[in-house]
């Protein structure tokens, strides 16, 4: 993989909740926005925006499954702002609503006597 794209992915992963413009990411690796988007998609199979959203959704899933944080806290930590938009996208991508995943995970951790 192109080392510039590898570096950008590491930057994105280092603080997944931080908003970054595609133009700033392109500039940081010395590419024009259009060249950056083309190269990123060529290397990863996804546009930069799609890739970031996928990473954020994976992080939200992990936090819902492995933490006891409130759903609202998780969506902000994963870089989302609008809860309804997050919930709709989460369900479309993972096939389960965030609140349902949380309940399902909690019931596995605390089975009835």
Itemize the secondary structure elements and their pairings:
Elements: H1 3-14, H2 22-28, H3 33-44, H4 48-66, H5 71-77, H6 83-94, H7 98-109
Helix content: over 70%
Label the structural class: mainly alpha
Give a quick account of the main beta sheet: strands, pairing sense, barrel closure.
Answer: none
Report the β-strand fraction as a percent range. under 5%
Determine the oligomeric state from the structure.
Answer: single chain
Number of strands: 0
CATH C-level category of the largest domain: Mainly Alpha
- Rg, alpha carbons: 16 Å
Write structural notes for this entry.
- The chain has 2 domains: about 5-50, Homeodomain-like (Arc Repressor Mutant, subunit A, Orthogonal Bundle); about 55-110, Homeodomain-like (Arc Repressor Mutant, subunit A).
- Helix content is about 70%, strand content about 0%.
- It has 7 helices and no strands.
- It has helices at about 5-15, 20-30, 35-45, 50-65, 70-75, 85-95, 100-110.
- The mean pLDDT is about 90.
Q: Can you tag this structure with a few keywords?
A:
single chain, 113 residues, mainly alpha, Arc Repressor Mutant, subunit A, 2 domains, 72% helix, 0% strand
Provide a compact summary of the structure.
By secondary structure, the protein is mainly alpha-helical. The protein is built from 7 helices and no strands.
